[in-house]
Amino acid sequence: MSYADTDADSYISVTGTAQFYGDQAKKEQLWTPLTQAWFPGGVTDPDLALALLEVNISHAEYWGFVAVSINDKADSNLKCNTLLN
């Protein structure tokens, strides 16, 4: 999976295995009235089982853009941090 926040120049990439997560207790814990718009059948809506995804992460990376002073003879610096190996 990947996520990009282009306004903040922040990016994350996650690698792993995923499966649908059908735990009823977790559905009830995460349920809010706003969720009703997507799942009109409520917390027992059968489509809700397809909305919860469990990801076992094997590797993740974050990239962020950091500005550096021109006095440092560089306009910008791209940093990359490995979160998980």
Range of helix content: under 10%
Structural classification: mainly beta
CATH superfamily: Electron Transport, Fmn-binding Protein, Chain A
- Low-confidence spans: 73-85
Indicate the proportion of strand residues.
over 45%
Overall number of strands: 4
| CATH architectural arrangement | Roll
> Secondary-structure element sequence?
EEHEE
Number of helices: 1
Roughly what is the average pLDDT, rounded to an integer?
78
Say what the CATH topology is.
Pnp Oxidase, Chain A
In spatial order, strands of the major sheet run 1-2-3-4
Number of domains: 1
Write up this protein.
- The chain has 85 residues and is mainly β.
- The chain has a single domain (2-84), classed as Electron Transport, Fmn-binding Protein, Chain A (Pnp Oxidase, Chain A, Roll).
- The protein has one helix spanning 24-30; strands at 2-5, 10-20, 53-67, 76-84.
- The chain has a 4-stranded antiparallel sheet with strand order 1-2-3-4, with no helix packed on it.
Brief write-up:
With 85 residues, this protein is mostly beta strands. It has one helix at 24-30; strands at residues 2-5, 10-20, 53-67, 76-84. It is built from one helix and four strands.
Topology summary:
Elements: E1 2-5, E2 10-20, H1 24-30, E3 53-67, E4 76-84
Antiparallel strand pairs: 1-2, 2-3, 3-4
Question: Which key features would you list for this structure?
Answer:
mainly beta, Pnp Oxidase, Chain A, 85 residues
